[in-house]
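pinned: reference chain
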Amino acid sequence: MSQNTGPHILMTNSSIYMKLSPNYSFLQEAKQAPPNLYYDYIIIGGGTSGCALAATLSQNATVLVLERGGSSYGNPKIRNLDSFFANILDNSPLSPSQSFISEDGVFNNRARVLGGGSALNAGFYSRASAGYVKSSVWDERLVKESYEWVEKKVVFKPPMLQWQSAVRDGLLEAGVLPYNGFSYEHLYGTKVGGTIFDHQDHRHTAADLLEYANPKNIVVLLHATVEKIEFRLHGESKPIASGVIFRDEVGVRHNAYRRDSKSEIILSAGAIGSPQLLMLSGIGPEAHLKAHGMADNPMNALPIPLHGLSKIPSPKSWASPRLGVTLKPLAVPISSSSNDSTAPKGTEKTLKAMHTMMKATVRGGIILEKIKGPISTGHLKLRTTNPEDNPYVTFNYFKEPRTSRDVPTSYRYGGEFPVNLRPRHVGVSIFLEQFCIDTVRTIWHYHGGCHVGRVVDPDYKVIGVDGLRIIDGSTFNHSPGTNPQATVMMLGRYMGEKILGER
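pinned: its structure tokens
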């Protein structure tokens, strides 16, 4: 059993890192689990939604969380803001970030760590808009309470230092109005949003929400890779999800079963993992899930090197203007390793070039543009029957003509832009539309694949079977707000309260 019960001292780069971990006596390695387990709720995925959901359900039921990755606690690369790119570019087997390349030729990542994407992202926190909440037919009062429940534990107001203040003032001078000051709400104009980094630049992930859990009612198994969900038939009724098969880090299989008829299995494995596990479990023909698609918000960026500055404040305060353009400083070391033998030809060269580019702009800023929605959608299909293998994912960036506008302004750039594996136009003056298509990157806000009304009903129950729900970003039709993590955490708490109310 691995218990995070006290100070952990790690040696890294000849320095001592010390962190007081939460008293999570319920955190265990999967290899210590018995062959068969029985719980009221089995949650597949201890990520951004799963942690909030598990903490809530444990107040009045027994909960088992199966997380395929390790703990986020005691890892300075997760804890410290300066290691943001180190995790994203780390492709080693033990990395908390599992890289993949979409069929569009765009580099991407999926989390495999307790806390999910909140353990890897840049930390920006902003709620969904009032219109998004209304269109989702959510209880507005419970949504507000659920956001506040999250914010009390993991969200902070960032300081407005010199760099952030300059960006804010520039946006206001350019007419991006009104100025909304500091707010968690999704608002038009310019605002300062929240962050999950505290004033010491230390990250607080969704795993911190497990501090709300009843430790007597919950067990979180790490390095527990779910292979499939099992079903049984009962007469002429619909198939019933009865349990899951998972294997530990040494390859031993275990079984987890629903305790009784009120018990449920809940998929919270994310926009890649949840539809992948549905297909691995034989739920819905591949063509059915594929038809409903997935989406990723395209991002384009222009590096802005700043010379002569001795120090740039940490990038934990973002300005969020009306048109979805954000100016953010970078001040992070770059390091990575790649052990992916299946990577397409040229990937290593491209990654090395990306590192060089990032190092060149590391003491500057980047203008980030995120496409709202988006309109273009793609699909996911299985590559193998091994749940640890990435599926084929196609996002179809800018395929829908309305996504990219024919901007009557040209931009001249030369040399290689090693940001993806897509064809590009080099050394000519081109429209910004073509520049965006050539240099598209992910902003890691992909979603969909298990949409409400198509794969799950309004209560997030999988259509056509009993005893199975999906509660995560795979159910979103569009990306909520500037960054979806706030709403993904909120949804875990929100649905946990709803489910407990049904018991």
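why pinned: The radius of gyration is 22 Å. The longest helix spans residues 485-502.
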